[in-house]
Design the sequence.
């Protein structure tokens, strides 16, 4: 629960800081990138908050067994 | 993509950034791993790793030269086109991302177990991420200047701590040499090689922001690797000579134990706060470097005008990544020792090597040069500081 | 002519010139009306009598002009009028011609063709000669007013070195600097800023030493200021400073002419404002706030030690309370045993956690300090530091705070005073509280991280194009080695700091 709250506050601050500049410059790419990544982060937080089984990104490393030494 | 939006860094600052990220988290986690694998021959492992590391330095320097003023991602995109180049870049980006996650987890574990027992690890990570985001938003130039400021302090403290430990160093711990054969030494060298040297690849993303010619750049890389290695070597020696190989493998953070051992005139004890400062600086530097690399890389992949706006969303995702990945120290250690260095070889060694080869092709070279010309036409020459 | 003051609100340079009324009587009435029949407005006709048409008249402000020059002038005008052979030159009566010619007796003469200039000159202390039938008036420079004497500065004391400090009058301050730099390349660019105050501002620099880009930068920023009044250099500082959002000052201010001269010779720019003794110096990197001109008057070794001491003072002033809070709250195991016992004993009866204790003491001290500034002289000095100690002692005995805390706060306060420049203590004081709060929540880890954030912030500030943390970052060894911490003795030739244009040339050649 706190996770999502933190996420929302974080995004809120981010929006307050960056949105005016982006809107003024009307850069669509910047705005969409910001929104996409922001929402992605928020989703991840929500996923954790609702205890959805989500693999950690680090687990990807497991694919590499002790091949070398 | 405005290269100047992040600023210009001098070769000296570049070198210092390299030193700091080479030391990075290595100093935290390596002594335990290398002690476990190689015992009292850990110093030999380290030397071996340094030797291999200098080869990597040569590779990175040559790759940096071939990038012709573009970043790692930028040159990949130009070299292989949108789809293949995009795929390569994505691999890099993902690796950078999990690297930062790793660093965050490490610092939180370190703080959790050694200094701040009661604080929830999420809070520790949150604070770190806040400062990291601030660093991203202030820009690369500010980060470089900060590193330049910190280096003398770092050096002084490091030397101070080392000198304080000298009386307790026992040379005989270094012997016997290679009593268990060459295998343990190699086993110890491999993680060292990975953590310290291969993971420095992110510096290749900074190439566009460098002031100075290619020769200065190569020198900076080479010297940075050398200096960073010396720091690591000293620490490994100290760990063996003062703590002994058994303690090295027993503790998770031998360097901290080292600091606890320092006692001057019965009064200056418990200087581990000093040590905490040092390692927080290096871990932060490495994290910031990778964060810039990540931010910049994504910016280049998408074609953003100002990549700083990604700072906060990315920070949020990083926070999420760590929160999901609630670490358990034993599991994590195993992950690190056995899997991560191999992963490193793929992403931070083989991939750059392939890129190095491909960038040598004359057709690619022409494309790179042309793109650089075009970019320099549109941008003002940066002011020399 | 309507007195609608519309010309006051117009942008400079775009006013319609309301020209001087040729009819002297109407003009004089206009002036009386516009100034609202001011007490200090003096109009002296050369003719006397209610029916007479003044051929010429003098207008000036009492107190701004020197009356002792005017009476002899008028009598000589009357004298010469008698013997004058000037016949109706340019439609003027003999009286008018003589009055005009002899106006040079008073001071440099300027011709005035519009009302705005007339009022500017009049209110700056000039004497205005109004001639009937002429479309111009003439002003003579006759300013003389009472100002403060050149005295010792109450705020900046020096152990060795000149003590005279600036006063509020620009005309007195400028010569103080000229006497120190007798080179024609010392340029003083005048400017007028402020719609109502029309304050005279002078940009001083040594042409050839100061970087042209910086000069231009400063000049442009000053010219862009559109404000009602400039009463103090602080107004300007706020409006042209590089970073409005940061606490850290990017311009230095000083009251001592030798400081200014030293800075000018380093290639920096001084901004002098009429009406205040505080002179601004730009650009001002962080470490210039840690230096004072006096370092150069004492022995090199001693000055180096002092600078190191100041650096230490800076760290103490910033971090000591937070470190104390962090250690007593989070890291008690870091203290040696004996100290731990005594601390624990002290804190036995104290009801508050360390952070609240520290907060109480620090806020109390800040209150005392501010109050001490404004209290009448005899009491003021005693109140600040001693007062804290006394109150602290009482608080300790009452069991509200622990003795160690009083020591910490007092040492911190005194350390703040080692910094030579007042403007840098402001961010330090504010940040101290931030560090304390972070220490209370995250202990030493928090302090370290906040410190990193602080360094980051400092590294990002630029002062008029110069990086704030020069010469340390980016590292310019030539500047750093000679001026940052170690004050090199003069017999080692040293070079100009890179911030000035010449950069690299040897500044002093010693004949052996």
Sequence:
């Amino acid at each position: 629960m706190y996770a999502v709250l933190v996420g929302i506050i974080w995004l809120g601050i981010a929006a307050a800081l960056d949105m005016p500049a982006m809107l003024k410059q009307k850069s669509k790419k910047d705005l969409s990138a910001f929104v996409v990544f922001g929402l992605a982060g928020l989703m991840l937080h929500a996923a954790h908050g609702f205890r959805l089984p989500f693999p950690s990104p680090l687990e990807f490393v497991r694919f590499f067994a002790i091949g070398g030494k | 993509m405005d290269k100047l939006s992040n600023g210009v860094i001098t070769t000296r600052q570049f070198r210092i950034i390299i030193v700091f990220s080479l030391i990075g988290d290595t100093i935290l986690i390596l002594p335990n791993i290398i002690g476990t694998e190689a015992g009292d021959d850990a110093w030999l492992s380290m030397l071996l790793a340094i030797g291999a590391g200098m080869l990597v330095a040569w590779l990175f320097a040559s790759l940096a030269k071939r990038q012709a003023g573009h970043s790692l991602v930028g040159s990949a995109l130009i070299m292989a086109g949108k789809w293949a180049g995009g795929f390569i870049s994505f691999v890099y980006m993902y690796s950078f991302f999990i690297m930062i996650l790793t660093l965050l987890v490490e610092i939180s574990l370190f703080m959790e177990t050694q200094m701040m027992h009661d604080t929830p690890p999420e809070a520790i990570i949150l604070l770190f991420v806040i400062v990291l985001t601030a660093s991203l938003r202030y820009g690369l130039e500010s980060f470089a200047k900060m590193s330049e400021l910190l280096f003398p302090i770092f050096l002084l403290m490091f030397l101070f701590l080392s000198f304080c430990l000298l009386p307790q160093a026992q040379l005989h711990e270094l012997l016997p040499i290679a009593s268990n054969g060459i295998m343990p030494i190699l086993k110890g060298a491999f993680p060292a090689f990975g953590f310290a040297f291969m993971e420095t690849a992110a510096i290749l993303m900074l190439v566009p922001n460098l002031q100075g010619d290619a020769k200065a750049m190569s020198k900076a890389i080479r010297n940075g690797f050398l200096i960073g290695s010396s720091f690591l070597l000293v620490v490994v020696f100290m760990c063996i000579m003062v703590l002994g190989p058994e303690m090295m493998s027993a503790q998770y953070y031998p360097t901290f134990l080292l600091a606890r051992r320092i006692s001057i005139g019965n009064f200056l004890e418990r200087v581990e706060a000093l040590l905490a400062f040092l390692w927080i600086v290096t871990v932060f530097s490495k994290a910031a470097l990778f964060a810039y690399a990540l931010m910049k890389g994504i910016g280049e992949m998408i074609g953003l005008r100002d990549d700083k706006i990604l700072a906060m969303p990315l920070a949020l995702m990083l926070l999420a990544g760590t929160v999901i990945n609630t670490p358990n120290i034993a599991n994590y250690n195993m992950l690190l020792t056995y899997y991560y260095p191999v992963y490193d070889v793929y992403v931070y060694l083989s991939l750059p090597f392939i890129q190095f080869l491909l960038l040598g092709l004359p057709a690619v070279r022409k494309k790179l040069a042309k793109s650089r010309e075009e970019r320099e036409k549109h941008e003002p020459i940066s002011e020399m500081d | 002519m309507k007195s609608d003051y519309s010309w006051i609100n117009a942008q400079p340079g775009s006013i319609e010139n309301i020209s001087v009324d040729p009819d002297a009587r109407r003009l004089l009435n206009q002036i009386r009306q516009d100034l609202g029949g001011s007490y200090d407005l003096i109009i002296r006709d050369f003719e006397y009598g209610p029916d007479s048409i003044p051929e010429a008249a003098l207008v000036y402000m009492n107190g701004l002009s020197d009356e002792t020059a005017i009476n002899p002038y008028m009598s000589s005008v009357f004298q010469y009028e008698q013997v004058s052979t000037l016949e109706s030159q340019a439609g003027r009566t003999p009286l008018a011609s003589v009055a005009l010619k002899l106006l040079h007796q008073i001071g440099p003469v300027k011709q005035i063709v519009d009302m705005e200039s007339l009022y500017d000159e009049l209110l700056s202390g000039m004497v205005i000669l109004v001639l009937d039938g002429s479309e111009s008036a003439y002003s003579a420079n006759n300013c003389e007013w009472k100002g403060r004497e050149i005295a010792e500065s109450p705020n900046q004391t020096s152990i060795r070195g000149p003590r005279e400090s600036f006063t509020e009058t620009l005309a007195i301050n400028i010569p103080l600097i000229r006497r120190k730099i007798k080179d024609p390349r010392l340029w003083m660019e005048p400017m007028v800023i402020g719609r109502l105050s029309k304050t005279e501002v002078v940009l001083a620099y040594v042409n050839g030493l100061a970087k042209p880009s910086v000069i231009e930068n400063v000049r442009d920023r000053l010219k862009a200021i559109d404000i009602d009044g400039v009463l103090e250099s602080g107004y300007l500082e706020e409006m042209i400073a590089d970073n409005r959002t940061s606490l850290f000052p990017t311009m230095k201010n000083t009251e001592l002419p030798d400081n200014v001269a030293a800075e000018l010779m380093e290639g920096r720019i001084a901004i002098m404002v009429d009406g205040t003794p505080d002179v601004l110096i730009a650009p001002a990197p962080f470490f210039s706030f840690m230096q004072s001109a006096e370092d150069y008057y004492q022995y090199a070794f001693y000055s180096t030690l002092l600078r190191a001491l100041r650096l230490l003072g800076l760290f103490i002033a910033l971090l000591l309370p937070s470190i104390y809070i962090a250690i007593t709250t989070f890291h008690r195991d870091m203290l040696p045993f004996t100290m731990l016992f005594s601390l624990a004993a002290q804190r036995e009866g104290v009801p508050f956690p360390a952070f609240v204790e520290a907060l109480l003491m620090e806020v109390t001290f800040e209150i005392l300090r501010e109050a001490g500034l404004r209290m009448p002289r005899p009491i003021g000095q005693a109140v600040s530091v001693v007062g804290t100690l006394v109150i602290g002692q009482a608080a300790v005995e009452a069991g509200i705070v622990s003795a160690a805390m009083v020591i910490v706060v007092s040492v911190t306060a005194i350390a703040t005073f080692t910094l030579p420049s007042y403007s840098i203590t402001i961010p330090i004081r504010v940040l101290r509280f931030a560090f304390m709060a972070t220490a209370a929540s995250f202990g030493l880890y928090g302090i370290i991280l906040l410190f990193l954030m602080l360094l980051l912030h400092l590294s990002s500030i630029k002062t008029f194009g110069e990086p704030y943390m020069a010469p340390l970052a980016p590292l310019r060894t030539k500047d750093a080695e000679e001026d940052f911490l170690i004050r090199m003795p003069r017999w080692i030739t040293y070079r100009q700091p890179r911030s000035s244009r010449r950069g690299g040339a040897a500044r002093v050649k010693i004949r052996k």
